[in-house]
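pinning this so it doesn't scroll away 📌
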Amino acid sequence: MATLAVPETIPSASEDAEQIWKACKGWGTDETAIITILAHRDATQRKIIRLAFEEQYKENLIMRLESELSGDLERAVYLWIFDPVEREAIIANIAVKKNIDYQAIIEIACVNSPKELLVVKEEYHDRYKRSLEEDIAVHTVGDFRQACTSEFTYRYDGDETDTAVVRLEAKTFHDAIKSQTFNHNEVIRILSTRSKAQLCATFNYYKDEYGIPITKALTSESPNEFALALRMAIRCIVSPQKYFAKVLQNAVGKAGTDEDALTRVIVMRAEKDLKVIKEMFHKRTNATLKHAVGTETCGHYNSFLLALVGN
């Protein structure tokens, strides 16, 4: 497998812009050159490259790359070139346009801190001139509408926990699961408004009191699609890195690679916690993420993902 050569000294944004322009010039596109530059630049550097490209060549770099690249590589590079906040707003919009990709929406709502989520919502509004909650409400119905829009409310972010509330709300979860009323208003209220510290304390108490983790309880009582969505939200709240390692395992471990999930997780977490996710993936599968990506993908898409995984 070829290894991309990375220069020891990072060129200036102007030089990077020039090399990308040369890679796009003529009949063919030099995808390797584009990957070598963009996959090894951080969010600030990529933004400056975008500005330099537009200033030097009077052309939007993102639109040029969209016209030069295709398939999974184009989708991955398109998401990567934005900064993390812009990217999550775009992923949310793509999820809405798909008639709601609940997994992507839940990840954004439940993995981010309240402050991070607020910034993503503001970016979404600035970019699309609509609120994210408004778009979700338009494309969902019933229980999912209530749950998804509720998850985008501002939850408390403190570390304090209330033992009495923990016991009461663990019982609320238990009763809802036993009666299979997963859409109970109280369940949705608790998940969408309680701090992550309070929720983790509740889930720990649930396991101690009822002898089973709440995530397993949600799959052992003939769960419906809504129950599985609740389980996903809980896993995102309790251990995002463990959750993402599982998503990657599913993306490469089944018949046919799930390129959408693979791209979303690697690109979205590369500048955050991908190192920890890689370690958890290795523990779960006894294989490195680099090996899995190298085996399950091909071509320039393969090279791009491997560059992000290796950074």
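📌 and the second one:
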Amino acid sequence: MSKALNATTPGFPDIPSTIVRATIVQASTVYNDTPKTIEKAEKFIAEAASDGAQLVVFPEAFIAGYPRGYRFGIGVGVHNEAGRDCFRRYHASAIVVPGPEVDKLAEIARKYKVYLVMGAMEKDGYTLYCTALFFSSEGRFLGKHRKVMPTSLERCIWGFGDGSTIPVYDTPLGKLGAAICWENRMPLYRTSLYGKGIELYCAPTADGSKEWQSSMMHIAIEGGCFVLSACQFCLRKDFPDHADYLFTDWYPDQHQEAIVSQGGSVIISPLGKILAGPNFESEGLITADLDLGDVARAKLYFDVVGHYSRPEIFNLTVNETPKKPVTFVSKSVKAEDDSEPQDK
């Protein structure tokens, strides 16, 4: 249950506010070992739940891993066996949705009574999608969001999500949704989430830059929502050895303890206040108590899809129809004009 806090203003009656304890897990994947990655996730979820967390958010591609530095042997007009085999191993670590790993994550959410947002690599046949998975505290898989626009070289190894997986779930904690990494730079994508009334805006990411913090602050203020940005913290030693990897280390000493993904996970209120983080130092938990009354307080002055919009000038249409590359139509009843000619 969410907690209630009485907010008293002189001249007004007490109005209970809903308080939600939210936790971001900032940690590295166990690369090439999905079962151990899920075991690691459960340990962090157990720790968060023991501290009262009701919502737990993981980074982008936590299941199977963000392929930072991987090149898959790709160059213009270049194909090679080493790159193909690297993709084969990466594909093997990805999960089918729904599937046994999704069932396991749902059971973990139920066990610890938390709403869970998990970044994962999803495989649909042999195409991979960068996906956010949503689970209820009762252990129900709510659904998923597939990243609609992979960035840079991601486009060579990941598919593109369509408008059918841009959900915002109306939960007892608040309206919950996600934008993955640089989707957060897409104004129209953000607006689609605002239009669905998002209050708990999850931003799983692989961007640990200082500039990213500015984007998260802007979105919290623009959307009048809580922003929970979850990024992995990884050292060079967390990745499998491979001569073709190209890391941009955050620090010049390129030894095994060198940081290659520096985290920066942060929780920001609709009023633009940093509630927890950013953590650029280590793996760990970033936790804050969210007063959902701040959503209304923020929207007094600015409601981007409400009183501060001008729909007679600007409007957005979102196509939520699933886009399938192949559609099969079965003819179950013979059409009239296909029947045998009748004698007159």
